[in-house]
Amino acid sequence: MLPPKKPDETLKARGAAARPAGRFERCQTVPETDGWDSPPEPRLLRTEIRIEQPRSVITRNTSPDVPFDRSLNPYRGCEHGCIYCFARPSHSYLGLSSGLDFETRITAKPDAARLLEAEIARPSYRVAPLAMGTNTDPYQPAESRLAIMPGILRVLREWNHPVALVTRGQTVLRDLDHWAALADRGQAMVGVSVTTLDAGLARRLEPRAPAPATRLRMIRELAAAGVPVRVMVAPVIPVLTEPELERIMTAAREAGARYASMIPLRLPHEVAPLFRDWLDRHVPGQAAHVMKTVQAMRGGRDNDPRFGSRMRGEGVQADLLHQRFRLARKRLGFARHSPALDVSRFGPPPRAGDQLSLF
């Protein structure tokens, strides 16, 4: 049983309902009343945005499971509140909870564009596609106010730097001119995550993310602007969203998506107990069935962290899911492989006072 939220907290549109201690914490605080004081006045738990001033913004990785070696995340934490989010455990590195803290205590990097340009301007920098949205969504609600992404995209455009985005935030359409300009040079691709077409289920799973119909509209408008779009059916949750796999792919293809991908549900570290708690609160009659199927694809455990299987799963259930995906991809005419983004034109933009080329 997860520790409850604070007695005076009222939750509205939150995925988690608890604030369990991070895996690095030695102690856990559980609020209790001794009966002497009057009950605290309830207060609505609101999102806090804190400013982070890092020295760099590009993160490197050598994982064999992902197709990129560098990424940029303008935010830590994500207000979308998706209960299944694999990035929740990253909040433990801040001494915060992967539960309510992850979706209510967000840190932002408003200086990201300047730091990005300083890093890619170094003589030692070697260009490769920059991945965004790989941990938390750069187009989460705070972005509509803070507007960090336009500066980042402006730098990428000026330097002809390729970028691949994963998002479910409709604010991406605000920056459509940037994405279209990069795509016109073969330097951009956008992945839109669509977990379910059921608006009611989406509201419970992803309480502050755009509705499924809005995400299909995002695909439609991005595709119409010439941006290559991938529909990301991720995660596929057994029993709950798995029956919709083909319907989601069909709707996305009709909206203009040219590529598709799929990842079975992953429950690393603190995500597993949070997800189990969500199942007990929202779909108690299906909870055991969901987790039994998850474990059938994860070697009998809630999660399998091994490279090579963590993104795919294993066993009969996982094999059938991937076979369904491959058949639907072929039937619907999705391209099998994503296009390579152009790195050939990368270089510093012309500045005032630069000497003109003689040739």
- The best one-word shape is globular
Output mean pLDDT.
94
In whole angstroms, the N-to-C terminal distance is 71 Å
Q: Low-confidence runs (pLDDT<50, min 5 residues)?
A: none
| Major sheet summary line | 7 strands, mixed
Helix content: 25-40%
Strand sequence of the main sheet, in spatial order?
4-5-8-9-10-11-12
Helix/strand order, N-terminal first: EEEEEEHEHEHHEHEHHEHEHHH
Structural class, by secondary structure, is alpha/beta
Helical region count?
A: 11
Instruction: Please count the beta strands (DSSP E, at least 2 residues each).
Output: 12
- Our estimate of the beta-strand percent is 5-15%
Q: Radius of gyration from the CA trace?
A: 21 Å
What key phrases describe this protein's structure?
7-stranded mixed sheet; 13% strand; 3-stranded mixed sheet; single chain; alpha/beta; 359 residues
Describe the 3D structure:
- This protein is an alpha/beta fold and 359 residues long.
- 30% of the residues lie in helices and 13% in strands.
- It has helices at 100-104, 112-120, 143-146, 149-159, 176-184, 199-205, 212-224, 245-255, 271-282, 287-297, 316-332, and strands at residues 9-10, 43-44, 48-51, 58-60, 70-72, 75-76, 105-108, 130-132, 163-167, 188-193, 229-236, 259-264.
- Strands 4-5-8-9-10-11-12 form a seven-stranded mixed β-sheet, with helices on one face. Strands 3-7-6 form a three-stranded mixed β-sheet. Strands 1-2 form a two-stranded parallel ribbon.
- Helix 2 (112-120) runs parallel beside helix 4 and helix 7 packs parallel to helix 8.
- The N and C termini lie far apart (71 Å).
